[in-house]
Amino acid sequence: MDRKSLPGTQVTSFAECLPPPQFPAGYSPSKAVSQSQRIEPTQLCSTASLECTKARLVNLIDGTIIDFEGICPELTIGRHPSNNIVISDSIISSKHLRIFKDESSFCALDTSANGTFVCGSRLTRNEMRRLKSGDEISLVQNSYKPTENAKHIYIFSETPSVPVTKESPITVRYDLGRSIGKGNFSEVKLGLCRLTGERVAVKIIDTQKTQ
After folding, report:
1. Nearest Cα to 173, choosing from 155, 184, 159, 153?
2. Euclidean distance between CA atoms 49 and 45, whole angstroms
3. What's the whole-model pTM score?
4. Residues with Cβ < 8 Å from 170, sequence gap 6 or more?
5. How far is the C-alpha of 43 from the C-alpha of 204, rounded, in Å?
6. pLDDT of 2-32, one tens digit each?
7. 22 with 93, same domain?
8. 42 and 60 together in one domain
9. Looking at the structure, do residues 97 and 120 belong to the same domain, yes or no?
10. Percent of all residues in the chain with a pLDDT value above 70, rounded to a whole number
């Protein structure tokens, strides 16, 4: 396919990306997204308006998937055995984080001593933050700062109520997270398949710059 003939943005494999993507410590994507598809820059956040029916939390490091179905109305993370997700790490509080759904959306509430980050922004103790599909949650260390070597990172993901298949647009099939690599004409983002919870890497090529 001649990329120069396609205006806008294209999503393709990150195999050609230079420099190599800077993945979080311990992270290894299941695969790269290899489908090429023309999309406009404004479409990269288009899934926010979709009505969603199911939600899950995916461990970005080991790929563990925690479905909210059957756990709702609340999921808790912490050291104490009573939590839904138990983390045996002294830096994690006994009751570190609550994720729950109110009348309008899912929310994260920090209940820790050492802090929680949502997309790189720190929550103060007892602060609530509304979540959207694709939000990255890290405990204690900020996963948006590579120097902090965050160990406990999760992606919050919702499944749209519209059917999601392999033929669906890439921006419907995948949650696109933070940038993990940039080149002159492209950017690599962390991705999560909204259908399976599979971790991927997505390379976005700005075809207008290649002309």
Report:
1. 159
2. 9
3. 0.71
4. 11, 33, 35, 37, 39, 202
5. 12
6. 333 333 444 443 334 333 445 555 555 554 4
7. no
8. no
9. yes
10. 68
Nearest alpha-carbon partner for 195 in 52, 16, 19, 3: 52
Residue 21 shares a structural domain with residue 62: no
Contact 58, 197 (CB under 8 A): yes
Q: Which domain does 202 fall in, by range?
A: 3-47+162-210
Rounded distance between C-alpha atoms, residue 2 and residue 156, angstroms = 35
Phi and psi torsions of 47, nearest 5°: -75, -10
> Do residue 55 and residue 110 come from a single domain?
yes
pLDDT (tens digit, 9 = 90+) per residue, 81-135? Answer: 999 999 999 999 999 999 998 888 899 999 999 999 999 999 989 999 999 888 9
Q: What is the pLDDT of residues 75-84, one digit of tens each?
A: 999 999 999 9
- The pair of structure tokens assigned to 107 is 């929310």
What CATH number should be reported for the domain holding residue 59?
Answer: 2.60.200.20
Tell me if 105 sits within 8 A of 72, measured CB to CB: no
pLDDT for position 138 = 96
Alpha carbons 85 and 99: distance in angstroms, whole number: 11
90-94, 110-114, 137-141, 168-172: lowest mean pLDDT where? 168-172
Q: Are the C-beta atoms of residues 65 and 58 closer than 8 Å to each other?
A: yes
